Amino acid sequence: xxxxxxxxxxxxxxxxxxxxxxxxxxxxxxxxxxxxxxxxxxxxxxxxxxxxxxxxxxxxxxxxxxxxxxxxxxxxxxxxxxxxxxxxxxxxxxxxxxxxxxxxxxxxxxxxxxxxxxxxxxxxxxxxxxxxxxxxxxxxxxxxxxxxxxxxxxxxxxxxxxxxxxxxxxxxxxxxxxxxxxxxxxxxxxxxxxxxxxxxxxxxxxxxxxxxxxxxxxxxxxxxxxxxxxxxxxxxxxxxxxxxxxxxxxxxxxxxxxxxxxxxxxxxxxxxxxxxxxxxxxxxxxxxxxxxxxxxxxxxxxxxxxxxxxxxxxxxxxxxxxxxxxxxxxxxxxxxxxxxxxxxxxxxxxxxxxxxxxxxxxxxxxxxxxxxxxxxxxxxxxxxxxxxxxxxxxxxxxxxxxxxxxxxxxxxx
Length: 413
Hints:
This protein has 413 residues and is α/β, with parallel strands linked by helices.
């Protein structure tokens, strides 16, 4: 079955609102073995909507339309649908009753303009809206299924799940089993990961490999399709095992897990405690730690020692060391980590210091120079990094690198 989506709204065309509906529809259909072939977005002009509907109806078996079902002057999707399909626009009694019922529950009277939301093309079937005012509708035009849903994401997804997806599944002649597994990688470049996995799809017939960069992570998606759930799952598991082996050491999480949730699980498993001393990241590492439920069981405390005076006052970093080596140095990073561990009593202490920019760089220590240090019972060590990007990107990759340090520390014997 060929499926297309049509998103309607000037706010989408002007970039004022991000179209999350399209991604949601595609993901939910893919989950049940249906694939979207085309996505199209148009503004609130009636000629554009009519043209888009005619084009997509000609190319697709089903079209899912979102947006333009509200009460305002720019909400003209119903009128455009009637024109595109050669039908009259009539008042739908069921939709009108729904509108009145919602308004009564809210303690108000139905505004005359709201009645516009009950206008639908003739021979349409109402799509109930359990969480909003605007009901949707669907109709069959020249053998094609056309669905019209509100643009409000929370309303759209309920109507999609409860009405549209079941309708399509009942009429789909061939429903394939589709599975996707994800390996999340941090460290190597996208090209390096691609090189490591270049033969994976060729060796495992039926597997496709795709990459998605969510800075600074790389998500490797292994997809399999087939008629049998058992066969597809078996194929995916074999491909995952091979991919893990080829990416040994740089895979930090799989599927729905994240770097932060993995680190949290390891801390709970090991039963050790943590403290943090941050400078250039301004508390981003602590935020990632404390965003995880139950982090109070292992995270003792953290400080943001932004100035040299703060590093000396709270962590005991010698002023002479700061003067000789500079705040951004391996020696100071280690002094911060050891000082943090001393004052907190934690098993592990991690420290971060660097130059995030846009100012402060020198030829010896350019913007993006970062030092990370870790202190534990075995001692203390530090490493220098040269990151690239703007201030936010440097801080983001620094925080994730610090989390990866903790992950590797917790996995070490």
